[in-house]
Amino acid sequence: MTSSLFTRISGLAALGLLVVGLSGCAESASAPTDPAEVTAQPAAVTVRTAAVTATDSASDTLRFAGIVQAHQRATLTFQVSGTLKAQPVEMGQQVKAGDLLARLYNPALKPATDSAKARLQELTTQLEQAQREWKRSQSLYQRGVVSEQALEQLAAKRDGLEASVATAEASLAEANQMLGESTLKAPFAGRIEALLVEVDEFVGAGTPVVRLSSPGRREVEVRVPAYMLEDINLGQPLPIWSVQNRHQEPVNGTVVEIAQPGSVRGELHAVLVSLPENTLDAGAPVEVGIIPRVEPVTTVPLLSVIRSATGTAVYRVSTNDGTGGSKAERVAVDVRRIVGEQVVIESDALKAGDQVVYAGMTRLADGDPLEILP
Prior knowledge:
Layout: H1 2-30, E1 45-51, E2 53-55, E3 62-70, E4 73-77, E5 82-86, E6 94-95, E7 100-105, H2 109-142, H3 148-180, E8 183-185, E9 190-195, E10 202-203, E11 208-213, E12 218-224, E13 237-242, E14 251-258, E15 269-275, E16 285-290, E17 297-301, E18 306-308, E19 311-319, E20 326-332, E21 334-339, E22 342-346, E23 355-359, E24 369-372
Parallel strand pairs: 1-24
Antiparallel strand pairs: 1-23, 2-17, 3-12, 3-16, 4-11, 5-7, 5-10, 6-9, 7-8, 9-11, 12-15, 13-14, 13-16, 14-15, 17-22, 18-19, 19-20, 20-24, 21-22
């Protein structure tokens, strides 16, 4: 019994060793002999690409705020001081050129005019008398009755009175002018925008009293940095947007005046833009668009730029020489600025028309094969 059991176990062990030996021979026979077959080929990474572009203008339109105003406007003042006694106009009223807008009372103006007039009359009478005396003395001098010295004294007196009369006439004209300055008249036809002083208030010389504007042409003034004046020319059309209605299409204005650059650092310079008739009302806030000129630049999609410890780069699509397919090639770039969904870059290795990866870069490495989706 024991001998039979030992014989069975020995047989099973020998059978197991035979099976293991055969299995090892099979594996040894099927093992690859080429080491290149041991390395598995990487799977292609699915990506989307976009073209590198070169453009002459990579700058957005810059908008400058302004207020629409009348082309012809004036803030009227008195040249003399006094109390406002009459203001026969109302705000918003249409007036014609020469209409009375306000009258000032100054107690010294009328007496000054009367005094100048009386002084002129007095000197005129004395001059006439001196002229008659000189003529009589001249006749007597010719007959030897009056000396030459006396005749010269009468002539000097006459000439002095002539000068005094001229001075008095100038004084009277000045007094009349000052008296005329006590009334304010419309210099042109327009609409009263504002009445800045109330009746019976004291008004100093040069104090604004009435603001007047013409209902004709409209314009807007904006102030821009000095470096942008090179981008603006007389007659150039510029878009103008209404701030109150941003969905409205812009109005095309025309540049009519450009300020010259000054020597003050950081100073803004005025640019005057004329508006077409019957477009925007005076007082409306607007934005005037100006596109700065820039040198030709290279741009790529914003999503295509990656950042790492070695700097910024993009993956360019290049031909895989081994298989003829496409592979990813990491190209370093310098980012200059972001313009919308594009990035302005500098790189000697990229040119317009090159394809760069912008989607599917999370699993992408330099040299990986690519499957490009349309």
